[in-house]
Amino acid sequence: MSLNLEELEQVLLSHLKSPEVREPQRQVLAPRAALKAREPNVQPVVQDPVDLAVGFINEIVSETRSLGTHRLDSSILRTIVLCLEAVEKNDPILHISKTLEVCKVFISSGMLAEPRSLLEHLFCSKTQKHSPSLEDLIGGYEFAGFGPKLDAEYIMVVLELILALRVHNISTRFPDTIIEKTSPLIPSLDRQQRLKLFTLLSQFCTVEQTPESLKLRYYTLMYLEDADTEFLLATILHFERVCDASVYSSTADMFYKLCSSWAQSQQSLRLLEFLVYKYRQLKPASCTLRWEAMICQPVVPTALDDHISYLLTTLDVSDTNDRRILLKALELERPIANESFFAASVCRVIKRLDFNVKPDQQLVLALLEVSKNLTPSLNVYDMTTIMLKDLDPLVHSGFGIKTLSLMTEVLKHQNQPKRLRNFSNLLFHFGGKLLTKHETEALRCWHKCLGVEDILVEQNTDEFGQLKNKVERMLNMLIETEKYTQSYDIILHVFQSFEQVHLGWEVEKYQDELTNTFGVLFKLIARMIVRMDYKLPVKFFGVCDKTRAFVTIELIKILTAMKPSRRDQISALIVQVKNELHDNGLFLYFLSSISMIIEFGLALKSIEALNFETNSVMSGYRDIIVCHIYLLQCCAQMDEELLMKSLAAALSWAKTKRAKVSVYELEVLTMVVRVLNYSDLTDYASYLLEVARQNADFGDSDLKLKIEAASLKLQLGLPNDALELLGEMPSNALEAVRYKMLKTECHVLLKHDTAREECTELLSLFKNEQLQLSKQSSKLDVSKLLMLAAGVSVLMSLFHREKNKIESVLNLKQSIRVLQSVMKNFLVTDGSSIEIDLCHKNMLKMQFVSSMLQAYSSLAVMMLELGLAKDFEYYEAEIEKVLTHQSCVVLKSKYFFKLAKHHVYKNDLSRAKEFLEKGTRYAQQMRFESLQVEFEKLTAYELFYQTAECSDVHVIRDKVDLFFRLLAEHEIDGGKFYQQVVYELKLGRLLVNEKEFVAFLRMFLPLNGKEKTSRVETAVTKIKEMIFETVNQDLENIFARDSVVVMKEGVMDNLYAACIRECAKFVNEPRLVSEDISKGAISVLLASGASLRSDLDSLLLRNELMRYESIEYDRKLNLAVESMRQLVPLVCQPDYQVSATQMHNLPSVLPSNWVTVCLDLDMSSGCLLLTRYGPKQDPILLKLPLERHLIGRHASFGSAVQELEAIIQESDRTTRIEVTSLVKSRADRANWWAQRKSLDRRLKQLLWEIDSHWFGCFKGIFGRLVFEKDVVEETRVSLERILSKEVGHSIELGTFETELILQLDLQLESATSDVEDWFQHIQISDEADYRRLFLAIEPELQRVRPRSTVDHTVLVVSPECVKLPWESVPFLRNRSVSRMPSIKMLVDLLIEHEKHLNLGISVATGYFVINPGGDLKRTETNFTEIFASRCGWEGIIGSRPSEEQILQGFQKDLYVYVGHGGGEQYIRSKTVKSMAKLPPALLLGCSSGKLKLQGVFKPHGTVYNYLMGGSPMVVANLWDVTDKDIDKFTLHVLEKWGFSGPSGCDIGHSIAQSRDVCVLPYLNGAAPVLYGIPFKIRNEL
Q1: CA torsion angle 663 664 665 666 (round to 10)
Q2: For range 545-568, the mean pLDDT
Q3: The Peptidase C50 domain covers which part of the protein (predicted)?
Q4: Mean pLDDT, residues 1045-1067 taken together
Q5: Is-contact 455 420, C-beta < 8 A?
């Protein structure tokens, strides 16, 4: 358009104001009018105002039809009105046409006010009426008679407006008006207009349901060609809704006309038959309408109450058309007059339908839709449900879902659980069948199924189990078909349902219910997690945080139990929970809980993470959760600060009164108690447990806590308290074993007579099949069983400790083997499988460490008891290893102090000091106070200061005494809290026995305990004081201590006898005590000077037992067969004590020309104790004071030993490579030899002083000659006579004194001093002329002739005496001398090898090991020819032998080792000691015969190993020697022995004759010694 809107308005306004009016064209089809009416988009050529107006109207109409009404603002609307006015002024017909056209556009666009205004304006302009109604508008179309079509258009526009306005308050005459106004027009309308008109009329009929509008329907049907079924059915429904007495009068005529019209046009009245029957029923008597003529069937149907019932009974549903009619009828909402009849009809119809046919499905749905509001619909639903069972869901799942959903919607408010359950089952069944074919439909079915289950749960929460079961089955099928993601919503659904059902439950009850409800579901989800390649989102585990957390906890439990390890999946779950949970307290509880399930790294960035929100669901558990988190961190870092915080939180929880304690709280309490216990804070643990039990009701769990409390009491040394706690035995097998173990331990500690019976019953429990490892349900239970078994073995060791020490040690070793199995299988894993959860693994680690320390410490104590230093060292080292790999400062400090004491026992004071410093350092780091640590610290320092003879010993001793004084009142010098713990638990009872032992050590001379009286009055200190007083009662005689005492047979003074009887009561005390008291008894015996033979034999037997007992225990332990497969000992072993009664057989088995002398040292007096055994002679016991002459540099035993050690140490120094490498010139060599020979002279001098100053005349006790008894007696009488005459008074001699002087070699240089010593012994004053006396008796001594000479002397050397080379003391140096550790071992050898004493041994076969280290080439050259060329001999030369080769060598007649040491580096000592019978052995290496002396322990070394292994003869070196000298010695021995030369003497004489071939006859020649029997070589020819 060329003009804009404003310009157009101006043109139109000017036109309207102009008086000029064009003559309107009357022709209907005038060119311009036709142009404008039919071609609105064609612009007129002449641009007059009317043309402009029409053009504008056409443009707006076109735009509105295509673009909508968004451009129709008020200015355009105003312009349209001006345009219409302009057109109306010049062309009324065109004005009407354009007005109607604009109105239609406005109405279709939803603009209703404008068309109504235009129509009203049009009506008013033609009729001159104002404010017309809609009814006025419908009747006012006859304006100028422009033709029926235009009139019809007008009416249709008005009808459209009325429909659009949805007017409901029109008058009842309105339909009649429409009928009246439209009837004349109908014949002139074309088909399209007619269709449009009656479509509008049919729509109009639905505006209101009145008889008048029904009449309009009938009118419409009369003229509506091919009326559709929907309209007909709607008409019938209209009739049903308005049917009353008045409907007939108002509508019958019209309906009758309709029927007549249809009949004339031969249209079927079938759909109208229902109405015909109804009008026939309603027909009044006065009516003349013949309804019968309209009905084809003479029989009137019975179901005329409502149309649907009529159709159900009259239509053939198998007929497609009838089914369609019925379906259409059902789609219309209509009243049901007879619901029961209707329901029955529906059931009959449904029964005839085929649910697998789609049209029938539609009909079913329609019938159900109609039935849903009817009371009797249950029967319909039942029938439908039955029919649905045969439905093929693969084809018709949608129908099934719709049908069941429709029925569910109806029944969900009617309390029909059984019917809903059937619906749910069907849906579940459909989903199962569809899953592999139509996944989406399957899931639809299942979600609908779960919806039905939700309804059931809402009605009755007990139905939740059915929902859960269905979910489990769904999930199982989804997993099997690998449709994992499809299961997420199902999982979420069931947890949401659970949350709804259990809304508001207390958190513990909620978690328990969740756990108990979803056991199977959790397993299925876990299985799905394992199979998935991606994470399962935690958000599908419910909506609530607590549900997600608790579900994840249960899943982790299951994943943990799976094999192989599922660590990745578990870690992913933990990370997700960390990110998903917003409740910090709940997250901490989650961490705490999963720590009881799986091992994982617990790392909280900050300790502030422990803060709980006030609204946390776990706020009621704050203290116990915080306690556990601190505990976990403590176990990871072993930080005492964290452990203290954990204890503080636990005490806060324990002090709160509680009516009930949850399983979680019980678990955490148990854990913190055990961690404290395993951290050696047992007193704190016991206190915490007592407080908790006082303030809470633990219900059935209290039995478990009583057992825990009893265990703590036992570890605190309170068996009576523990026994009171042990009431009823628990039913659980593992707990029952623990209960029985604790009860048995109480009986053992209390020394009840029933202890053995209790132990037997305890061991019998392990025969129960439930306690087999293979029967345990989890790795955790296996570990618990193993730890119990280890504990039982420790208990059995305790039971056997006093009466069967061998079994006690074996029990402890068995315990350690079990513990090592725990470490190997549970603590040191490769991570491939999840064995034990974090909490229990942490506790297991701590329990393992505690148990290992306990077991190793007990073994160390047992080795101390047995005197076995080497094993003691081993277990000591193991304790140190265990401490190295753990970080508990309490344990470290306690055991380092124990190790310090252990090293004091070994006399290793430098190492003891190191451990004291370590223990002190860790004690300073301790945050906890500890009674045990304080005790160990104080007593360790006191023992160290005492042994090291520090001046501060009295200061530390006062602290120890103060400690015990406070403890007696259950007090301690510490913090208030710990004072409360000590006081309430009465911990002063703990260390009573320890106090007694401390008092004993102060009087224990081997550890420099020099107290003669004790501040602590105990049985041991009393007997010690009694011994001291008895032995030293004769101190007024200043010479009494230096007097030689020779025991005589006679009656002992009562004072001495009483003391000895008291000493006998201590034989079963610990070794240190019993041996010390036994040695004291011997001192008393010697102080008495006389005793009955029985008393002497008894004490000598005890003395022998002290020598032999440790060796026998060592041998037994090595021979013991240890059960490697048993968890616990099979039975209680009978009592076993080492016996040495065979020593009484020595005089009877000793060869006639042999003498045995026992060398012992009295530590209190420093005297040598010599016991001589001769063939068929009673033993002679004498005490030989070493300082009786007070001359010589080395008068005391200790100084002699120190001198020997200094000589050997200096000798070793001179042979070291760093010294010998400097010897290059002749002068260097001369200087080196000068040093060596000087040492040789020093050793010779030392041995000469021992000979001269120690033994003097008493060297005769060693026996050199054998005299007849009558000769001795005759000589005694002669000597008494001569000496009495010479001194002027009577001299009495005994047989012993006579033999002493007879045994002296008067040709020796020392003869004069020896005779003088003899004169002093027989109490001839030194004022006498000893030389004159000697000259007087010499002829008599020269006259006496011995029967024979002593061929061999056996020295039974006590541990204190083993270092000295007694064999090289001048009076023994040229004699055949051998050593033995004990008389018992000597007797055994003499009995076993009796035939070899005279015949000798065979050396036809033998095994040699020469220079195995490869560095003694000269030695190799010297001996290769001798041994390698010998027939029947084999061996190794110049290379390292295997243990198996040496064992084969032990099968030969003789074993020879020539190399470094004694060959112990090539064969284990245990292997050697375990041999049943070893051959004679020549161990010719450096120090092969050296015995290691370590404090209070018995000596040990390679040579003892061979003796224990049954070797009857061993040659070895006491110290390091040079290879050249010892090679010369060895070659000479072999020649003299007859091995490499003609038949010779026995090995003892060979050694004696070979010492001087050495360049250094003492420094090297005194080193070789013989142990055992001095065999000679048998002549094999």
Answers
A1: 50
A2: 86
A3: 1403-1497
A4: 91
A5: yes
> In terms of Cα–Cα distance, which of 1510, 1482, 1480 is closest to 1391?
1510
pLDDT at 581 over 70: yes
Return phi, psi of residue 403, to 5°.
Answer: -65, -50
CB-based contact 1113:866 (threshold 8 Å): yes
What's the rounded Cα separation, in Å, for the pair 337 and 334? Answer: 9
Read off the tokens for 1298.
């006579």
Name, in order, each residue with C-beta under 8 angstroms of 1002's C-beta and a sequence gap of 6 or more: 946, 957, 1009, 1011, 1014
| pLDDT recorded at residue 298 | 58
Which amino acid, 713? K
Cis bond leading into 564, ω under 30°? yes
Q: How many residues does the chain have?
A: 1581
Check: CB of residue 1495 under 8 Å from CB of residue 1567: no
Q: Which residue matches tokens 């909402």?
A: 333
Output DSSP code: residue 611.
P
Give the architecture-level CATH label for domain 1393-1572. Answer: 3-Layer(aba) Sandwich (3.40)
Read off the pLDDT of residues 1349-1363 as tens digits, 9 standing for 90 and up: 999 999 999 999 999
| Beta-carbon contacts of residue 436 (< 8 Å; ≥ 6 apart) | 481
Which residue from 1091, 1025, 678 is spatially nearest to 847, judged by alpha carbons?
Answer: 678
Structural domain boundaries of the chain?
460-582, 887-999, 1180-1352, 1393-1572
Q: Which residues have CB under 8 Å from 625's CB, separation 6+?
A: 585, 588, 589, 592, 612, 618, 668
Pairing relationship of beta strands 1568-1572 and 1481-1483 according to DSSP bridges: unpaired
CA atoms within a 13 Å half-sphere pointing along the CA-CB vector of 992: 13
Straight-line distance from the first to the last Cα atom of the chain, in angstroms, rounded to the nearest whole number: 156
| CB-CB contact of 1527 with 1534 (8 Å) | no
Alpha-carbon separation of residue 474 from 148, 423, 1128 (angstroms): 71, 16, 50
Tokens of 601: 């790294």
Return the sign of the alpha-carbon dihedral for residues 420, 425, 428, 434: negative
How many contiguous H segments (helices) and E segments (strands) does the chain have? 68, 16
pTM of this structure: 0.77
> Does position 564 have pLDDT exceeding 80, yes or no?
no
Least confident stretch, 392-396, 597-601, 881-885, 1254-1258: 597-601
Which two structure tokens, joined as six digits, stand for 944?
Answer: 């160290």
Radius of gyration, alpha carbons of the chain: 61
DSSP string, 978-1022: HHHHHHHHTGGGTTHHHHHHHHHHTT-GGGT---SS-SS--HHHH
pLDDT of residue 521: 93
CA–CA separation, 516 vs 195, rounded Å?
Answer: 71
Sign of CA dihedral 630, 631, 637, 640: positive
Q: What is the chain's mean pLDDT, rounded?
A: 86
* Helix/strand/coil for 1349: strand
pLDDT tens for 939-973 read 999 999 999 999 889 999 999 988 888 888 877 77
Give the pLDDT confidence score for residue 334 in this predicted structure: 67
Judge whether 69 and 62 are in contact, CB under 8 Å.
no
The phi, psi pair for 1143, rounded to 5°, reads -60, -25
Q: Any idea what the Cα angle at residue 738 is, between residues 733 and 742, rounded to 5°?
A: 145
Q: Strand, helix or coil at 592?
A: helix
Which of the pair, 1038 or 462, is modelled with greater confidence? 462
Q: Is the dihedral of CA 1198, 1199, 1201, 1202 positive or negative?
A: positive
Indicate the pairing of strand 1454-1458 with strand 1433-1437. unpaired
Query: In angstroms, rounded to a whole number, what is the distance separating the alpha carbons of residues 468 and 450?
Result: 9
Beta-carbon contacts of 754 under 8 Å, excluding residues fewer than 6 positions away, are: 747
Angstrom CA distances, 1549 to 24, 149, 687, 767, 1534, stand at 173, 162, 72, 61, 11
Measured CA distances, 797 to 487, 743, 814 (Å): 59, 16, 10
CA-to-CA distance for 1262 and 1157, rounded, in angstroms? 6
